[in-house]
What we know:
Chain A is an alpha+beta fold.
Amino acid sequence: MNALGRVWFPLAVIALVALALPGMALFGLHVAGLEGPTNDWLLANLKLSFHPALPLWACGVLLAVPPVLVLLYFLKLKRKPLEVPSTFLWKKSVEDLHVNSLFQWLRRNVLLLLQLLAVLGLIYGILAPKFFARGGEGRRYVVLVDNSASMSATDVSPNRLAQAKDAAIAEIDAAGESDAGMVIAFSGAAEIRQSFTTNKVALKQAVRDIGPTSRPTRLEEALALAESLANPSRSTEDVAVRPDNATRTYVANEGRTTDVHLFSDGRFPDVSDFARGNLNLQFHSVGKPGPEVDNVGIVAFSATRDESDPSRLFVSVRLLNFRPKPANVKLELTVLVDGRTQKSYDRSVNLPARLIETPAGDSNLPAKDIPGENSATYEIPELDDRQEVVLRARIVGHTDALPADDEAQLVVGVVRRANVLIAGPPNAVLDAFFNDRATQEVCAVRRITPAQLTDRAMYLDPAQKGTFDLVIFDRCVPAREEDMPQSNTLFIGRPPPPWKLPGEPQPEGKTVEKVSQPAIKGWVPQHGLLRYLSGLHEVGVFEAYRVTGLPPRTPKLMEGDRDLLLMFTLSRGSYTDAVLAFPILNDVGEWNTNWPLLPSFPLFLRNTLYTLGNVRDASSEENTVPGEVKILRPAETVDRIEVTAPGSLEAVAVDRGSRVDFAFAGTDKPGVYNVRWRGGSRRFAVNLLDPDESNIQPRTSVTVGSEAVVAGASEKKPRELWKWLILAALAVVLVEWYVYNQRVFV
Amino acid sequence: MTAPAPLLSPEFLHRLEQLELVTRKIFSGKMKGDKLSRRKGQSVEFADYRQYTVGDDLRFLDWNLYARLDRLFIRLFLEEEDLHVHLLVDNSLSMGFGSPTKLQFAKQVAAALGFVGLTNLDRVAVQAFNDRMTETLPALRGRRSLWRMLDFLDKLGPAGPSDLARSLKQFSMRCPGKGIAIVLSDFMDKNGFEDALRYLVARQLDIYVIHILAPEEIDPTIAGDVKLIDAEDGDAAEITVSRPLLDRYRRNLDAFRGGLHDFCSRRGITCIFAPSDTPFEGLVLNYLRRKGLVR
Lengths: 746, 295
């Protein structure tokens, strides 16, 4: 009994330390990155899993506690000698204590054991073992940080982006240890800066690395990205990709709820056609709230040449004032030829105050926001129309919260004419447009008959070389898919291969049938081909084709009744095939539609020529917004071009690859870009020119899907406190140990 | 090491001059002094008559009585005698602790009481002891001897283990007369104090016990895990200072003090407890006066 009394204590200490060893081993495996396989094994054999709920360093500190406690205990055994007058009373007292409490010495040692047990409990508590569950599963959250141009506004110090980043980092800090987060920076395009991870350090670093851009804001792509990564299988729910033959079982995928934290000033168009699904959107508004906005910006900049005198240029600059009071700014227009200032104009522009009209009575209607607007027009004579002219408009002697929109550039280039091939039987309607003098200034037209489509010299070779910018197939098609030209096309009254007309052998799933007298029900005026078009419902059509088996998400440009698709576009590599599902003239040359009699028809052909034919106008071209991919098509056939960004001396080489044109994506910086190739050069301008970005008043609510998300209205999730309580308990154990040994006068 | 402060300051000495030692017993002395003796002698205080025998001094015959009774009676007077004061100072090693040390405090009290005795022409003997009687200052008388006494006390340092019973037994055997015995000690003797005091009681001395303890002993300030070494015999005691242990120590100390006090009370010994940090002038001038040692 006595021997057992002597050994039980060391045995108990050894047992406790041994019990701590598996915990330490699990921790070691976690450090070595083997948590996954370990959990698999534990789950298979013991129905257990674990995931440390604390960061690595905290776990390390915790695991160092038991050895330290044992060490302290052994240090305690080495007593400090102290001389006293007499041990007489002390000895008597110690003996008394021993007599009074039989297990006094035992009790002291039990303290150590209790402490070891407490620490053991803490270790396993923090390893968070679970029965019948996989470790490491927490909620998912996506941090969307807006880094568009308006986020550079300095209405808050130092700027909105910094404020948004701070708020995002705070949100990441507040997330649980097992919560997986993702960081997406978005402006005109969205970019994943950090994919889903529980590593908060990586997430915060990703947020810190987000830099400002001069791009406009589009939320759709960011949301789509968040959704696709949050619910990767969600796209299989789309009916379009669901297999038609139901031979295999289709299981709808259950999405996973994901919190999306949107840090933005809300200056983007509402995203009404987005199904939020499992995304729980929380909007965190950034910037100084209220209508006290300090910004005047250039939102439009255009130039046109005088048709009768090409050396004369009409320039228009549109300015908007978002201040609540009128503004007077000095606008400077500089004309640069070959980099040298040729002319300069200064003009004072008065802008009225911004007006916010709150609708009376019905408060459900949104307030009408009318910024102060004015335009400055210039007439610049005696400009050489054979040279590229750069125009620079700048608001001078003026400071506001967003300097990015105080300057704009415009390149007035020389004409780039399109090579157009029209294949088909004679068509007076098309001829009327393409023979027009104004059209001929911007394009060169060749015509071939349907029979010549098989001619190598007339069609096949030049088509494969990419000689043409636009090929119009009027009531005829190439015989094979391989004969499609290396260019954009417009099919009139015929579907492109592999679809075949009724009566011909049709490939499986791709059918074409005739429909009589369809009515036009709707169209997409935002699309480049239908821009400025109105009154299309007046168009009467005698006969059209119903084309089935189209790829999913085919852009539907014009729709008729009976679910009829009258105009759509198909993508073919980098080319676009536009299809008009009804002919202008039928096969016998009779009019099939009254559309040519309406003003929208020549506009449609002009849009087709400019959009699909890559025409650069005599006056100017479409503005490129920062971040937009610029499609460049040099006049000569070259394999490589070099692009020099504004303010940069280094040229970026762009290879053509298998495409006919060059896609240049590095348009982040506003300004004039210089493009050079062997035998030529040209310039293009990148400008913000976005009233949405210039209006820097932060929005307090944004509409995503069918609901409005109000900033800050989302409720905070309760945070886990248990680990802090455990840490506090650990601290108490240590303090108790210290007090017990050092200070008894409590 | 700083030089020890003088045992008695001149101002204090001046105040001590007004005091005298008091005994509750009347003792016989060797020389005429201030105290009344049991021995009949030549004082002015009448004691008794006895019949005249041949050889008696005729000057003490009471002639008035002879006239009335026609018999010769001798008038007896109480003899005035000096008082023996024994100051027994414990100088064992355990007395060297505390601040100020218990020995220093004992020496100061002894010096004060000795001075009072010398001033009143008592015979003052100072004796140091630890496990035996170590040093003895022969009986002194008169104020002129003060410096010899102070010198003796000054040279007294802590040494050796303590054995109260053996020391006081030696004293009892050597001490011939009667008088006041004042024992200054911490009574920290593992063999107990009872036997020692019994030896003194047996000599029918008027005994005063001044129990001196250091404040560190009364309220210990040690903490943690310590190995206590006995200063006298090197005995070690390993303790972990805890609140229960301290409580137990205090209870034991109280029991020890109470035991000494009870033992003394029952045997007519005056027991005075004096922590070594007590202002000793106050102790002598007030506390000892209240206890009846001085007047």
